[in-house]
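Continuing the series of single-chain predictions for the mutant panel. This is the parent chain; the variants come on the following pages.
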Amino acid sequence: NEMENHTENTTYRATFGVTYDWNANNLFSLEGVCGSMANNNKQWENIRHWNDGAYRNMSRGSSAGEDDRDYLNLSFLYLRKFGKNGELNFKAETYMRKDKEVDARLYDYASNERQETNRVNDEDNRSYLLRADYTHHFPSVKGKLAAGLKADWLKNDNYNDNQLWKNEQPDEYGSYTDNYLYKEKVYAAYAKYSFSWSKFSFNAGMRVEHSILSPQSQSNPERNVESDYTDIFPEMGVSYTINKEKGHHTGFSYQKGIQRPYMGALNPKVIRQGEYSYFMGNPMLRPYNQHNFSLNTHLFHQYIIRLTYDCSDGGFLQLGESRDGVLYTSNYNGGKSSSFGVYASIPVEIGRNVRL
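Parent structure:
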């Protein structure tokens, strides 16, 4: 196998920030980071097999690729203090990124077949965030109240052009173009309260989210579907100090989360993979919930024993369905998963300066 490879990488990154204290109770901050990355790669290779005292050429070809990225991230922060116990944080953030990938390959095989592929992928990704959080402390009960609102918008425009030639003739099974526009909106509100009483500490909270997913294919607009859903995510925890001086305490916690399908799995585009097979995304794919339980025990300030149990009420599966002798493969909701974990950390002193 003979190979020659040339790679060039260029990276630029700049950060900036300014903070202004209007007074002791009002603080402003503006931060940003921008940059670009460029990667160019050229490769040549020749693969031969030694057989019966002679070399046989298996494949010979070259490839060239280019990957460029430009990005900008800006965030504005405002802090407002209300005496010693109240605090309001406001955040506005935007992130913009543009990617362009170009890949070209040309190979000759021992079967006398010549194969050429060209791929171009342009992606424009933009996200915007507005968030407000308020916290208030109650010293008399060692309590803390936290509440907030959040709005998150994501927009991703992706253009993909894949072209395949075999023996200088276009191959319909490996050639396609796709213009995919994806939008995601998430609105959330939460509240959480924690306090201590005697040797106990408690916390409980609730988060409500409303999401709108809009996967739009310009190539297969007849399969475009917008979906929205509202979910409630509770969390709670309790801990007990067995012996403060000796460092004995234990605690239990529960949290509910969500796993959304990634934007590529929702793409309505139908891609032909062969004479009798197709692959297509599923714009009706739904998210599923995850449940996390944890029991933590600390002894003598250094020993840790942790038990965890995680389970989900759904999952993502890739299934094929035959219709009139043609196989259609797509993503579907289904399946469940669970896992149980045990973790222990037990330090042992060996001599004066060694710990195992």
